[in-house]
Amino acid sequence: MLREIISSNQKAINFSLILVPLPASTHPHYLILLIKLSFVFSDGALSQEVVQLECVKRAKLGDAVVLKCLTHSMWRYRVWYKQATNKTLQHLSSADYKYTPMVTDHRYFTESSAMETNLTILQMTEEDVGTYYCGIFKSRDVVFGSGTCISKSVTAANASFGGGDMVLYFCLLGFGWK
């Protein structure tokens, strides 16, 4: 997927790669490696103002899930959005970290400080599976983090892989302007 959105002179590069490096015959479990990089280039200099440390987070239905976002920035106004598969972005929360945040659903809770903003999903449901983006308002633009993908945990009893089974290979490279 290649996407370009032009709104200012900042360029963002997002790269995601999921690999299954070892066949079942050489290792009893499939290894999945996720590499997700997000950089924001401004006037030729690299700056990363919004950092979501977890690319993937697994949780059981009913669990509370905390998504952390570091905002190495002086910008006070923070937002959280969710994107479910084949859905548009859904606004979850807005906040000036010095004041009480506004959340769109009682199942979410947001807390912020000068350098961090966290979103808590109080009880995970199937509807909560998706990618969550933390962002900051910078002038008239929103600068987003790389996103945290929440997936439902599957117990070993519910999953089965045969010796010849293939597992997902996924690569996404996106270039955009922010």
Automatic annotation (TrEMBL):
Record keywords, A-Z: Cell membrane, Disulfide bond, Glycoprotein, Immunity, Membrane, Signal
What's the chief localization of this chain? membrane
Could you state one GO cellular component term attached to this entry? Answer: plasma membrane
Q: Where are the transmembrane segments?
A: none
A GO BP entry: immune system process
User: InterPro entries from the entry?
Assistant: Ig-like_dom, Ig-like_dom_sf, Ig-like_fold, Ig_V-set, TCR_complex_component
Name the UniProt record assigns to this protein: Ig-like domain-containing protein
Tell me the lineage of the source organism: Eukaryota, Metazoa, Chordata, Craniata, Vertebrata
